[in-house]
Amino acid sequence: MLVMVVVIAAIVGAVAYLSNFGLAGDNVSSPQEETASSESSPPATLSDEEAFAKFQQAFQLIQDRYVDEVDEEKLLQGAIEGMLGTLDDPYSVYMDPETAAEFVQSLDSHFEGIGAEVSMTNGYVTIVAPFRESPAEKAGLQPNDRILEIDGESTEGLSLYEAVLKIRGEKGTTVDLTIERPGASNVVNITVERDEIPIETVHVHRFERNGLTIGMLEITSFSEDTADRFEEGLAQLEGEGIDGLIIDVRGNPGGYLNAVEDIGSLIIPEGEPIVQIQNRDGEKMRYLSTLKEEKPYPIVGLTDRGSASASEILAAALKEAGHYDVVGETTFGKGTVQQSIELGDGSEIKLSLFRWLTSDGNDINGVGVEPTVEVLQPDYFYTAPLSVEEPLELDMLNDQIEHAQMMLKGLGFEPGRTDGYFGEQTEKAVRAFQDSQELETTGVLDEETAIALQQSIVDLVRDQENDQQLRVALDLIVEQAQ
After folding, report:
1. How far is 78 from 377, CA to CA, in rounded Å?
2. What is the pLDDT of residues 306-325, one digit of tens each?
3. What is the pLDDT of residues 337-356, one digit of tens each?
4. Which end of the chain has the smaller Cβ count within 10 Å, N or C?
5. Catalytic hit among 311, 338, 347, 387
6. What is the rounded CA–CA span in Å between residue 340 and residue 20?
7. Three-class SS string for 138-152?
8. How far is CA 399 from CA 143, 387, 406, 428, 447, in A?
């Protein structure tokens, strides 16, 4: 059974891991008609034949009598999209033949784009999570960023896949995104240079702490071969000898459900449910671990707000079925399962058919999985990228100065305040930073200084010594292994 559990519109650049969770080959029957209740007498329920006749009548009426000539294909596509729109479900979408073909082509070993998972949330094209080490992450895109414009054109009225196709593009080209970020009063303009995004989904790391060897398996997404890569990485670490294991799914937007099931059976004790799937009638199917022997070392999970879908299944299984600690932040909260259904002409509908529940039967949709040990990263991890259209200097006040102050403080250049007011101490901090970068020492935050400041923060974030969540996870392993 191939079921994909991911936010539908995912890899901006190759919709690669989207919500392509198979169930391929299963037949899907037409849903039963439902009628809305009201205080007056309820409307009569139409039979399937009557409902089809009503649709056909409306379709023919518009086609024959509308004041302007209409495109029959667009009319039909609009009808399908309209039906899906009434579901109020960002993960149930229609893909025309071109988009569906792009989606299939994206299921490859690599793709070209910016590397981010997106969804349509409350009518906005929204970042679920940038891929680790992707152009999107390096440019400063964050979970829950709303994309208002793409290359200066509004995203209003665009379908999710139309927006995805506009964001995608060839390696080396750029795309300008206008972002609305929760908590920020002004929009942010971010330019992202597209690149080739390799789909290497498992990365192996080793750490030495207090005489102990701790392995870490970082999972960036759940693709078709992720479980095999995970098993290989785990065997490598165990063969070399480890005293504990960290499983990192931070910034992981999800992927194939069967991949996370297979991984669960490598680390969750035998007989424990890895995940439960619930249909519209409330019927549940549990997927149990087949691991024969419990691991002889402690395991700790790592999550953040960008851990979505299949990542959340694994985090919840670690916490509830394995009784392991999970360190970091509450996850994204994507708890539905989609099936891709072909319509015969190359187009497809991706429809939410199931909810997935945690090992203990909890519904995390819109809620997320809470860590057992909550750890936030330093403030500069969450700062918005700088957009300096004109030089910022003494006595100015705006959000960009606030972001710069947070960055300066993170880099050790004390700005005196972080409220967005450019005071004398901030000017001194800018001068000190410019001097450290061998820039002209003006105390003015110009474009050149902003670029250098942004890159310095990116380098700081990438230094594992500054990863507070990882440090806490390593400390937990040391404590539990002794």
Report:
1. 44
2. 899 999 999 999 999 999 99
3. 888 899 988 899 989 999 99
4. C
5. 338
6. 6
7. HHCCCCCCEEEEECC
8. 19, 10, 11, 19, 15
